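FAQ: What does a multi-protein file look like?

Like this. Sequence, then tokens, then the next protein.
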Amino acid sequence: MVIACAGCGWPAPPRSATPFRCPRAGTDDVDHVLVRRLDPSAAWPDERDPNPFLRYRRFLASYDRAEDDAHFVDVVTRLDEAVAAVDGRGFTVTPFRWADALGAWVKDETGNVAGSHKGRHLMGLAIWLEMAGVEKSRQLAIASCGNAALAAGVIARASGRPLSVFVPTWADDSVLARLRDLGAELHVCPREPGDPPGDPCIHRFREAVAAGAVPFSCQGPDNGLTIDGGRTLAYELADAEVSLDALVVQAGGGALASAVAQGLHEAVVLGRLPREPAVHVVQPEANAPLVRAWQRARETAEETPRTRRAHRRDFMWPWQPAGTSVATGILDDEAYDWASVVDALLRTGGTAIAVGEDDLVRANELARSATGIDVDPTGSAGLAGLVALRETHAVSPDARAAVLFTG
């Protein structure tokens, strides 16, 4: 399986244990993100293992590092059992149900490991570290305000690996307490006067990575393989046998939207789906850098994906001043995985929209009352986007639409 930079084409050495970030990243204005390229002749799995990392194992970059199929299954099974011992649950295919009161399908990730979809990204990385033989003593690092940090804490503890977590000053006390219980090393990151624009947690995280830590993150530019595990969510959607017209995904850093869009595209290439649904993304008005990038991409629609990636600062830069929102989990200063998301919107006929705080609150109240799912405003933000898209007829009321409740 080939791993290469989507921005410059640099190929990762075939047996590299750490093909996480393009070595040219940060040297120019190119959007350097490593991606794994799936063989278009690969066969869609016909088995139905409840663990998505086993069901879709032949689509994971880490599978190529296994001695054989039995070795991969054994390693993933043992790691998943360790996750369950820490968190009370391992990985399994999550529910996808019709919600009549919403007029939409709902993929419910709130019961996933650590309570959100973030564990998918990080379990994929943990499997890679095991298969590639990265030493257990090497520090893992992540920047996060909540869900990703909790998932990282659980999976690092299960893997027996040390973890540093870089969190904002406003991080929830209950999240911090749980991270301490999991043995994570916490670093609170205020905005320092000499910092460049952008999230100070990301700045401190990248300093740790430069000093030798493994980027155990949910941002593709910092570790391209984080998208690998996230694609399992899309593969589950493809296997649900529901022909969707539209999918609305909430976006902060953009890794979720990137992973889902790429996974659905692969399902079409491999013949599992007849076509891709229109992928739409939603952000809070308080922080909407991806919406801004989408608007600029529409103005230059004649440019190719490679051209857009060659001029990152024309499309993506930190949102200033940083806003506040009830959807705290998608308040990233930048949409780090913006380029692949914009590609998907253009390819599928989707759009990017920003919604206000009242809309986010109302959507959350509706989500909880209509489904009984204990989802927070971040996790139900996709529903706020769907409501707004239907009001403008960007999504027809009759369209078969889906949202993700992510935790």
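And here is the next protein:
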Amino acid sequence: MSTALTVVERAQVALGATEHEKKLVALAEGSKSIVAITNRASYQECHGARVALMRARVEITKTGKAARDDATAFSKAVIAEEKRLVGIIEPEESRLSAIQTEHDTRVKREQLEKEAAELERVAGIKLHIASYGAVAAGMVGKPSNEIADALAELRKVFVGEWAFEFKAEAAEALSAAIATLDLLLAGTLSQEAAAKAEADRIAAERTELARLRAEQTERDRQAAALRAEEDARQAAARAAIEAEQKAAQAKIEAEREAARAVIRAEQEAERKRVAEAARQEALARQAREEVERVRRQQEQDAIDQKQAQERARMAAELAEADRLHDERRAREEAAAAALRAAQEAIDSERRGLERARAEIMQTDNLIVALREKIDGRKAYAGIARAIDAYLAKKGEKGAA
């Protein structure tokens, strides 16, 4: 059990309660028998008891005021000592807080740098993976030999550890690009074979036409020699040859139109493939831009979070400072209020004493005036003796 005195015990010691309480109880109990004033003696007894109680009360009040003044001085000394002791450790606390804040900031910055490096690493891998599709898209409309070369280069590519966790995705993209080039090469070879076949067919038709024209020339020469005798037959033969030539020419024109339609279809397909390649490139560019936007947003979010934490810390410190200031001001105001109340009580007691003293002096003056008035009158001789005895006794008390 603690041996330290409680607040109540310290107050009792300051006022001497442990030493004087029994005397005060006895003093208060000693006048309990006075219940009414019936004569001069009972009046004097009541007056004397009241004055004794009043003096004890005034002494207690003086002692209490001295204790309160001492407590106020002690409180101020405690506040000053509190500030001095806090001033010893507060700079070190602030220094350690700054070290901790610097460490937290450095750790957060390193974390952000690691995250940015990770984003850049992933973006580089994604860009490398997208380059496979770009190779395939770039071969649209190229000759079969260039497509074959690009396909051979892609087949040499090995998806190694550079792809890290995207190794499966890179392998899939590479396989897709190779498959696309395979299809593109097959289609291009087919187109080139068809074009060669068409060119061979047209060359054969031209050779055939040249042969027919040569034969026609020969027939014309022979017909000229026999024109005289075979005019009617030659005319019929010429008409037949012209009809044959027109039919051959119409056939050639129809085949040319068909070839042009095939070429137009191939050109339209190539245009669509080029458009698709451009769309894929736009998507890849959008992906790169989105990665960059996310990185910038994360950096800004980290800065905003740090600023919010700093504002919260400063607000907490200001709130704690305001709370300590308010508590100190409340204690000072309470002490001042208690001091004012004590002073008012003392002033009120002093005014009461002055009023009682004035009343006693007024009563004594009236008694003296009455004694002078009845001096020498036998009818009031008894009253005069009582007044003389009272004044003599009062004089003795005053002298004491």
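Q: Is there any per-entry metadata?
A: Some entries carry free-text notes. For the entry above: The mean pLDDT is 80.
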